[in-house]
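re: ur question from earlier - yeah i can do the single chain one, its not a big deal. heres the input i used so u can compare w yours
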Amino acid sequence: MTTHDDIAKRMQRLADEVCPHESIADAVVDRLSERGNTPNRTLPYGSRLATWPSLQWAPVALAATVVFLAVLLGPFRISSQDGGDWLTSTSTAYGQVLTDALEKAVVKGVTFRETTVIVMSDGKHHTSSTVGKQFIARDRYRRDQYEGERLHSRQWYVPNNGGMVQTGLAYDTKTYTVLRHEGSFGDTDPIARLKFFVNLVDKADKRLANRKIDGVDCIGFEISASKYGDNPEDWKDRIWFDAETKLPVRMERERPRKETQFEAFIRVQDDFNWQPELPEDAFLPKIPEGFEQVER
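and the output i got, formated as C-alpha cells:
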C-alpha cells in the first residue's frame, strides 16, 4: 500500500526532475501541498499530504500534475528570502542580469583577495600563506603578492599607446622588470575573467544552499568546468552573489589532485570591495631606490 510519505517522496522526485533549480522544485511541491494545509498551521510535507485524500492518484496523473504546475510556475518569482526578486525561473538569463550589475560596478573599481585552500587526503583544509590582492579599474590593474604579512611582489598592468606595459617588483631580490605587450590584457584581463565566470551561471549544474558570507546574504551556483574548455568532469567552479547588489562575494575553483597527500586545491577569490577608496597613484608604477632592472 502506498503511504503518504511515499507520495511525498514521489512528488519531490518528480518535481526535481522537471525543475532543475531546487527552489522551483520545492515551490511545485508547496503548491501541490497547499490545498491540504489546515488554517493557521504549518505542517511538514508528509503531514500536509495526509490531509489531501485526492493524492491517492495513479503515478501518471501525479506526474502530469507536477509537470502542469512546473509550467504554471514558469515565471515563478523567488521570494526575497531566497535571494531577491531578480532571481526568477530557469528561463531567465541569470548571467546577463549579473553581468549588467558587474559592468556598472567596475566603473568605480574593485579590490579582492586571492588565496589557495589545500584539501588534504584526510579532509582537513589548509590555507596557503601566499595571498594575492588585486586592485582593478576598467582599463588597468595591480596585483600585490604577500607571503604571510610580508609583501613579496607587486605588478602593475597599465595601457600604453594601444598596448599594455607590465611593471613588476620583486622585493626579495630588489629587482624590477618592464614588459611591453601589444594589444589589451588578453587572457590576463581580470574584468574579462570575472565576466566569463559570471556568465557561466546560465550553465550551472545546481543552485547551492543560501549562505551568509561575512554578514551578507548570498545565493550560490556550482558549475562543472567541463562546460568550458577541455576540462575534466570533476573540476568544479562555485560562485556566490550578494542577493541585493547581484555582485560576486566569493568565487571558488576546485581542482582535484592525484597526489596521495592531497585531495584538491581550491583557488578562492573573496573579500570583494566594489567601491574602494583607492589613492590616485594606485596604478602608477613606483620603483624603490636601489632596485635593479633585469631583462626577461
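The chain has six helices and 13 strands. not sure if urs matches, ping me
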